[in-house]
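We close this part of the discussion by returning to an individual protein. The encoding preserves chain order, so positions in sequence and tokens coincide. The sequence in question and its structure tokens are set out directly beneath this paragraph:

===
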Amino acid sequence: MSEKPAKPDLESDRLELALRASNEGIWDWMTGEKSIFYSRRILEFLECTASAAPNIFLPPHLPVHHLDRPAFVRALAGALDPGGPETLAVDARVQTGGNGWRWLRIRGTVVRDREGNALRIAGSMIDISLRKAAEAQIEEERHLLRTLIDHVPLQIYFKDKDSRMVMVNRGMVEYHGFASSAEMAGKHDRDLFSNAHWEKAAADEKRIMETGVPMTGQLECETWREGGETYVVTSKFPWRDKAGMIKGTFGVSSDVTSLVLAQNQATELANELQQKNASYEEELKLAREIQQALTTTGFPKATSPEGNHLTFGSRYIPISGLAGDFFEVLPLGANRFGVFICDVMGHGIRAALIVSMLRGLIVTQNVKGRSSGEFLTAMNLGLTSILQRANVTMFATAFYGIIDLGALTLEYSCAGHPGPWPAGDGKSLQLCSGKKERGPALGLISKVSYPSSAMSLDGIRRLLLFTDGVLEAENEVGEQFLDKRLLGIAAGNAGKPLEGWLDEILNTVLDFSEGHHFDDDVCLLGIEILRGDG
């Protein structure tokens, strides 16, 4: 009788398929041996062959990053100890064959003899480098935000829907006499103030959450539980999550007790309080400008004696309250106008802070006496100096052009930014397409001289400046909008008025993008050139 063919090992097949789907690799080490088994996936993590792969569990554990080595050694020692746990669990950076570092989540099960000695440890590894990088970035932004909040000379607080403290800044902690923000967490105004005061405060916060209407510049008399009165100028706002849902309220208060008491009988009290409140509101406005990265809202009048005229239009869509794109139109005198557009690396608080630095640098530059290349050179020197002192790596792409309305010429310089499109006479050609016309992004290299280029505006009707949020908009299959589509839309609708032209460009990109929204800040600056001779 013939033998039946062996059935496939279904359990092994299932395990192999599951491991492929989970991106995990398998390892197996007999603790008394120097050799170790690594699966193909782990060898890919380590970027080496099986013969060259190191046994990271053998002392002195040099492949493990020195900052992670102590925790790695402790976890391994516990697993090898006769009375230790039955599992090994540790995360560590491990050096690869390409001399890079890769975060690995290492898990293992310990097999012991009757005396508890570890005979064998086998388990899995998975690459968590991307997760660790994302966690580090989030932690850095949280640190920056916390630093900003703690150093604003105001009392800042966030409350949940029940008006209990969720987060407070250092000024709030010191004002209430607590040792730390943790001691204030969960506190209600009823724990601090008299019934009359906390009931009114709770009613105000309930109204703000229900209507979404903030309360600003309110002078309040605080009556404390243990007696005594203080005066504060308070502004409160609805606190929303990323989806726009109400989470509670947040507020900003400033202690003005000494001022109120000192001027209580004076007829000038109202004016002085208003001035004090305006000063605090200006500081709050500054913090909100950093978060929202507000861009220019008005344009200068641009008409030359020859009758030539410039008309400006813009469209600006930040993807969040923290934006890194902005533009400026600078009157330079003698019928000359500077146009500057910039895109700061990344998003969030760091990008908004760099935007503020760049705006400050623009103000300090002698823009009227410099060429476009000299202007970008000075901007780069100022930004790199600040970033180097702060030991921060950031950069910003930028384009700066000088329009001579009398001579109808454009002088320009580029710092790694997408080149504008001049359109007219049925033709459109993107500027800064050659390497000689482009320099590196601002903030990367301190000693760089940016070249200046020039062109005639004869026959040019419009200029379109933009940031790469337009080009990088993706549809549902991950296809980007890119230059050719933008050029086609801009050229195909050039007969429309400037505002309609910009709307058509923006709406076309929105229709193209998945979910009818952008994944990056979008900034468009359109310039129409009208000649005096018609």
Summary: Confidence is low (pLDDT under 50) at residues 1-6, 290-294. The chain has three domains: 14-127, 136-288, 302-530. The first strand starts at residue 24 and ends at 30.
